DNA sequence: CGCATTTGACCCGC
DNA sequence: GCGGGTCAAATGCG
């Protein structure tokens, strides 16, 4: 089981947790019964399905797309011929300068569902905050040209100005699922039992979901800038999932991330989540996985995932 | 050891 | 020449 704490397993963990968060909010909405709140129910349900679907996809893709991605990330070694190292024959491509931005957004979080890899940071004159440069993690794998720049707004420190360049060619649809489909792997039904381990049980010795923001006020960028890829418009229709029981329980004290806060439209619902680093679109996996993987494993019989390996 | 991140240097457009 | 975007060696972590 410990061997499952891999990047793929981490992704699965987070996805399922997010699914559970959404489920908790969903139930709160249902209990509230306010008609105006029902507007979000379908969206939440879609989120749940999508998260769980992604969890499956992550496992399906581990030997496929994800493995390919990992394998080809190796940096080009220094030029073997000294002459080449003397000069820089390669012209540098400028994705942003000269070309227009695909879109510019101001958001409270840099999360956008895609996997980005930071490749630079620059202090910008007349700007208090550095600009961070990201490219799609699949740039070198499948040549996804998407890049983005993230800069904290000087006007509103809670906002991040995100400028996108280029369109993603990597996450149109779910390539992991597609890879699984190519292999004709059947999505077998499995059970996520959110009820195993009651709230009281899981929240005994303090909250395992403590916000990592414990005072230094500055979230470091985690080692991995892999955000969970949750592209918009994903369909979870092939998902064969049985959620046997969902309990809305107070697992944590408060949402630990903007994303969780967004999900948690009801103040009565406490959603647990890893700490989110808005600048790098990263979950703080170190704290999250260690503290919660065991917890998450209560919900999931990971033995079922052996089916996909 | 392999990987992602950091960061100084290089390159390019204005 | 300057400012900003990108590269890639160095670094450090798992």
TrEMBL record:
Keywords: DNA-binding, Nucleus, Transcription, Transcription regulation. Residues 70-110, 198-224 are annotated as: Disordered. This is WRKY domain-containing protein. GO terms for cellular component: nucleus. Residues 199-212 have a biased composition (Polar residues). GO terms for biological process: regulation of DNA-templated transcription. It is found in: Nucleus. SUPFAM superfamilies: WRKY DNA-binding domain. One of its GO terms (molecular function) is transcription cis-regulatory region binding. It comes from the Eukaryota. Transmembrane segments: none annotated. PROSITE patterns: WRKY. Residues 105-168 form the WRKY domain. PANTHER family: WRKY TRANSCRIPTION FACTOR 21-RELATED. It comes from Triticum aestivum.
């Amino acid at each position: 089981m410990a061997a499952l704490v891999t990047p793929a397993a981490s992704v699965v963990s987070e996805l399922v947790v997010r699914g559970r968060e959404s489920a908790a909010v969903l139930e709160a909405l249902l209990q509230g019964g306010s008609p105006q709140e029902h507007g979000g129910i379908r969206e939440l349900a879609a989120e749940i399905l999508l998260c769980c679907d992604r969890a499956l996809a992550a496992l399906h893709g581990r030997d496929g797309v994800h493995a390919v991605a990992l394998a080809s990330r190796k940096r080009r070694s220094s030029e073997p011929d000294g002459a080449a190292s003397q000069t820089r024959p390669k012209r540098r491509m400028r994705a942003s300068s000269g070309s227009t931005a695909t879109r510019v957004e101001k958001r409270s979080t840099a999360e956008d569902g895609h996997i980005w890899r930071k490749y630079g940071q620059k202090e910008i004159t007349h700007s208090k905050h550095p600009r961070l440069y990201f490219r799609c993690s699949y740039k070198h794998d499948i040549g996804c040209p998407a890049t983005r720049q993230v800069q904290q707004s000087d006007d509103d420190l809670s906002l991040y100005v995100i400028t996108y360049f280029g369109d993603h060619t990597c996450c149109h649809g779910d390539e992991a699922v597609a890879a699984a489909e190519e292999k004709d792997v059947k999505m077998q039904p499995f059970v996520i039992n959110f009820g195993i381990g009651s709230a009281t049980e899981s929240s005994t010795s303090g909250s395992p979901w403590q916000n990592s923001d414990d005072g230094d006020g500055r979230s470091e960028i985690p080692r991995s800038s892999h955000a969970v890829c949750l592209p918009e418009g994903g369909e979870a229709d092939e998902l064969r999932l049985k959620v046997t029981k969902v309990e809305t329980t107070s697992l944590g004290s408060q949402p630990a991330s903007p994303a969780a806060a967004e999900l948690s439209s009801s103040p009565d619902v406490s959603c647990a989540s890893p700490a989110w680093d808005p600048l790098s679109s990263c979950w703080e996996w170190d704290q999250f996985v260690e503290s919660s993987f065991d917890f998450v494993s209560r919900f999931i019989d990971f033995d079922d995932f052996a089916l996909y390996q």
